[in-house]
Amino acid sequence: MLVQTPPMGFNTWNTFGADISEELITQTCDAMVEKGYRDAGYSYIVIDDCWMLAERDGDGRLVADPVKFPHGMKYLADYIHARGMKFGIYSCAGLRTCQDLPSSFGHEFEDARTFAEWGVDFLKYDFCNFPERADCTLAYHTMSMALKASGRDILFSACQWGHFEPWKWMRSIGVHMYRSTGDINDSYVSIRDIAESQFQNLKFNASGCFNDPDMLVVGMYGKGNVGMGSAPTDEEYRTHFALWCLMGVPLIIGGDVRKIDGFCRDLLLNRELIAIDQDPDCREPFLVGNRGGHRPVFLRHMADGTFVIGMFNLTDNRSRMPFLFPDAGLPWHSGVGLELTDVFTGENLGIRRDDFSPVLEPHTCKLYRARLVTL
Ligand code: GLA
């Protein structure tokens, strides 16, 4: 199976937009290796929009911009493969990409062959300039088939922004991950709104095909293509990453891995959190409660028989976060409790059997590993 657990990697768009180059990609690849991202599981390096020339060549093939990418795409694929990683590229289901460059509508099979020749392992496939009278499902299915026919295993990442409830049909046409929302930006409100919009759709997640609520903005600190000037706090980035991991969705870094350091690098490399994201059972978290709204408390069943409890205070006020055991399938008379360990600090909180209601500051979260204990 090409995609057992949510794909992990890096994408150029959030930080660099159109300002991409061969040097950026080779430096990013080196940084992914040297700073531990590759070994933590981030395997795909994806070049987003703006890699191609404004026109196809005489044979109708897409051409990499020779100023930005002087040695062409095969060179980059080889560079990335030699360092044990995988190479991703971008095209679009419409007539032009979102930045008005040539796109794959009507060229699916030739473009998929080109990508395969270049050694591409991942295709992000956008939705701009899609003809009003064309069929969206058919267009994505056509590219899915073109990739299958290309002779190479290529992960198909459909970027269709959640139109027409993609969680209901993307799996059936062979897609491996599908964008379920509009574009994220580097702000707490964007992170919160995107996450909350997908809590109900995670039940469709399973090995083979995953809901993609867009790339991470961790470590951007207000700068870059989707930077908003004012930056989220470290705590807000932690909430962002914890939400994505608990939801079990793709982890695609959008910050500049060459420069991210300290808190955000540790966060992105946090093995406990990545293990939650990559749990082989791929179960969606169960919503235990959401008192007053924007205070979701989840319980996620893990493959090894433990659980993860996630509490997110997404409000602007300090809030008590009640975890009522009967609401999580543990009635008072069960004779069973939960031994809790804080995922971030490693602190063992002992065995709980009654209400467990920590108070959380605004925009912060708590994650606990929980183990059933017979009392
Ligand atoms: C759309 C996508 C983004 C990015 C840009 C590139 O907005 O949703 O993720 O790929 O296009 O132009």
> Any idea what the CATH architecture of the largest domain is?
Alpha-Beta Barrel
Please, what is the average pLDDT? 97
Oligomer: single chain
Principal-axis shape equals elongated
Strand composition percent: 15-25%
Query: What ranges have pLDDT less than 50 throughout 5 or more consecutive residues?
Result: none
What is the level 1 CATH name of the largest domain?
Alpha Beta
CATH homologous superfamily (4th level) name of the largest domain: Aldolase class I
The CATH topology of the largest domain is what?
TIM Barrel
List the ligand species. Answer: alpha-D-galactopyranose
- Report how far apart the termini are: 41 Å
**What's the total count of β strands?**
16
Helix content: 25-40%
**Structural class, from secondary structure content?**
alpha/beta
Provide structural commentary.
This protein has 375 residues and is an alpha/beta fold. Helix content is 26%, strand content 19%. It has helices at 13-16, 22-34, 37-40, 72-82, 108-118, 136-149, 188-198, 234-247, 262-268, 271-277; strands spanning 8-11, 44-46, 86-92, 122-126, 155-158, 177-179, 210-212, 251-253, 286-289, 297-301, 307-312, 319-320, 336-342, 348-352, 359-360, 365-374. Strands 7-6-5-4-3-2-1-8 form an eight-stranded parallel sheet. The protein has a six-stranded antiparallel sheet with strand order 9-10-11-16-13-14, with helices on one face. Helix 5 packs parallel to helix 6. It starts with 7 loop residues before the first strand and ends with a strand. The model has no long low-confidence stretch (mean pLDDT 97). The structure holds alpha-D-galactopyranose. Alpha-D-galactopyranose (GLA) binds next to loops. Alpha-D-galactopyranose (GLA) is lined by residues 13, 48-49, 97-99, 126, 159, 183.
